[in-house]
Design a protein that fits this description.
The chain is α/β, with parallel strands linked by helices and 426 residues long. It contains 16 helices and twelve strands. The protein binds manganese (II) ion. This is Sugar isomerase.
Length: 426
Amino acid sequence: MLSESRIQDLNQPLLEEHTLQFNFLSDALSRRQLDASQVVQQLVDFQVAIPSWALGTGGTRFGRFPLGGEPRNLEEKINDVGLLHQLNGSSNSISLHIPWDIPQDIAGLQQQLGEQKLVIDSVNSNTFQDQKDQHYSYKFGSLSNTEEGARQQAIQHNIDCIRHGQALNAKTLTVWLADGSNFPGQQHLRRAYLRTQESLAAIYEAMPSDWNMLIEYKPYEPNFYSTVIPDWGTSYSLCQSLGKNANVLVDLGHHLPNTNIEQIVGRLQQFGRLGGFHFNGSMYGDDDLTTGSSKPFQLFLIFNELVDAARDQSISNPTVAYMIDASHNVKDPLEDLLQSVENILSAYAKALLVDRTALYEAQENNDVVRAEEIMRDAFLTDVRPLVAEAYKRAGGALRPVAAYRAAGIREQLIQQRGKLSLSTGL
Ligand SMILES: [Mn+2]
């Protein structure tokens, strides 16, 4: 849909200004003993997965306002991610949600993934709603359900997800449970945890040895009195009981307001149990807004922990899987995803600029103001030329959102798929 030469044509009028800005910033950074080119390479290497359910408009229980041209099947979803990857070079994988994305034409899909330079990142199970023809209901939970049959059904669904993922060379199963209770006394809190642990162990046993399980936590919603896995501590304890291939997944929107998420990230890396990330933005809870849109400083502080741990020889954390998990209610989903990736890369770039030697010294000396100033220095650096250079080096567009609009991509998608096409999945 978008040829390489078309992207180069769109970059052409912006090149002179970009080069000026990049050289200016490179000079300024070299005076701080920082190599801009090295930072750019780290940005080029950073990849964040796009979930199949983020390619169509999201909504709330009050309504959904589709904008047309949404992908109608897995092939079209992969196409959309391929398009994003062409524009920013940073979205090389797609996460599947079962049952919506059950692969049918395996050979065809593999060929398509190869052509678009994409891989499957993970498969996400869904036991938070009932599917047609399902024998047991998940109304009162899935892996924690009091009924043995319901638990077995949920276990089997997760094992089926692994099989679907294996067909496309995925290696990660992500489990998020809606299980919990709405009223005091409704659920035996300890027994619900133990049943969940037992069910997860059965899935873990069935998982190939080169696969990873990511366990996500969430303090509330859809259950409001209690959730079975409400916090990182519960998720961590489950992972500890399962084995080394189970790790904690941090979803930025799954915290109560004002939670110090960066500290959680630091702790989990210290314990070698940070397995993955779901990026989004939150004002009150699981709002699924554009990541970094309202709290860019928090996103920077999170990346600061990631960079700090990556440089610490004493930390042995598994490779962290990054994914965007947002809903796009009022924006074009593809534009929103391009913005999200840009915010992520900006936060990462800023974290790479932190003067760590000076920061450790200030921390050791309890020089509070100096330590804070060092963080602010990095955060307030305008890193946009670095991010643009990373896009350019990866063969992408200097300004992905502008290129997306100039190329008239949404209009083309509407023409191909229709004004009323609706994407599937949650
Ligand atoms: Mn999530």
